[in-house]
TrEMBL record:
It comes from the Bacteria. Pfam families: Methyltransf_31, WHD_Rv2258c. This is Methyltransferase domain-containing protein. PANTHER family: METHYLTRANSFERASE TYPE 11 (PTHR45128), S-ADENOSYLMETHIONINE-DEPENDENT METHYLTRANSFERASE RV2258C (PTHR45128:SF1).
């Protein structure tokens, strides 16, 4: 043991453990980049469909990709233990147990979707570093794929469980939607959830609002492709939603992982309270965690969520001159804001399959 200049005791064993952990972190960070590529290029899907081990050329040909790049990607996947190789033939296999977690056939269990965030956030690192020095934020325009990735993320956590787990969170909601009610989604993104609900419940009327023109145009195209006549999408800045929201207009209001990104989150919540009918229900999906970092030490994806918060959620809000709550604003602050917005009842639900989100049932 040695004493440092600050008077603390230097533990070489602790340093060695930290060094080993950090090397693993470097490998895992690199792995996420390559997993993202495997997902986006369809390589995992192709390999899962092979009836026998294949060479890099055979895999590349099947996927319609360049063999040299596929060969190097296979090197990363093999050394990471994702793919297995026969040393005698240099033929590669994606074990079915691994395919069950990194292919599109895995549905809601496809973890490769989330690996995309690492490369996406890395693309704005220079801008974030400048914000550390100068303050301010990075605007949505600097994240060209974010809505695409968020839509896939939403497919995993929300869309795949919409009918079985999420609608049943609100007692009697399915029956009311079947009969016909007014529904609003604030921060709708690409509108996948609302379009699905509009498809399931044609007697109800749906409105989705988002700041992003690109996302709203995508949502509109999807609704037109499905020939949905009971849904509208609007482009709107919700910073003054507390003033412009139509009073007592909606029976059911939703936000899916959207409030903490807003420039003026309290104004958004006040607007939701204003536009919700007296007997209406607000369903708020938001990140599971505490407002106090020491309570998040055992969070299974705490580092991942704080990173997304720093490099997207917080900074896009600050770029609008906003509050910059960040994704890890936490349950305590969420409850405080809901109360300040005018809500009197907040019931938190957790879903067994979802380690990322809390589901709040909120009423006036």
């Amino acid at each position: 043991m040695a004493t440092t200049q600050t008077g603390s005791v230097f533990d070489p064993n602790k340093a060695e453990v930290f060094g080993d952990d950090f090397v693993r972190a470097l490998n895992n960070g690199a792995l996420c980049l390559m997993v993202s590529i495997g997902h986006r290029t369809g390589l995992f899907d192709v390999m899962s469909e092979l009836s026998q081990p294949a060479t890099s050329l055979e895999i590349a040909t099947r996927a319609g990709l360049n063999e040299r790049y596929v060969r190097e990607w296979l090197g990363a996947m093999t050394t990471a233990g994702v793919v297995e190789v026969d040393p005698a033939t240099t033929r590669f296999t994606l074990p079915p147990e691994h395919a069950a977690m990194v292919t599109r056939a895995a549905g809601a269990d496809n973890l490769a979707v989330f690996a995309q965030y690492i490369g996406l956030l890395g693309g704005v690192e220079d801008h974030i570093v400048e914000c550390f020095r100068q303050g301010g934020g990075v605007p949505y325009a600097q994240y060209p794929r974010f809505h695409e990735v968020m839509a896939e993320d939403s497919n995993q956590s929300v869309l795949s469980n919409l009918e079985t787990h999420i609608v049943p969170l609100v007692p009697g909601l399915a029956d009311r939607l079947t009969e016909g009610i007014q529904v609003l989604d604030v921060g709708c993104g690409r509108g996948r959830i609302m379009n699905r609900l509009a498809e399931l419940y044609p007697a109800s009327q749906f409105l989705g609002i988002d700041l992003s023109r690109e996302a709203v145009e995508y949502a509109r195209r999807e609704s037109q492709d499905k020939d949905l006549r009971n849904i509208v999408f609007d482009i709107s800045d919700l910073s003054n939603f507390d003033e412009v929201a139509t009073p007592d207009a909606f029976d059911f209001v939703t936000t899916f992982d959207a409030v903490h990104d807003q420039a003026k989150p309290l104004n958004v919540l006040k607007g939701i309270c204003r536009t919700l009918k007296p007997d209406g229900t607000y369903l708020m999906q938001d990140i599971k965690g505490s407002s106090h970092v020491h309570n998040n030490l055992d969070h299974p994806i705490g580092t991942f969520l704080y990173t997304i918060s720093c490099m997207h959620c917080m900074t896009v809000s600050l770029a609008q001159g906003g509050e910059g709550l960040g994704a890890m604003w936490g349950e305590e602050k969420a409850r405080e804001y809901l109360q300040r917005a005018g809500f009197s009842s907040v019931i938190k639900n957790e879903l067994a399959h979802d380690i990322q989100n809390n589901w709040y049932i909120v009423r006036k």
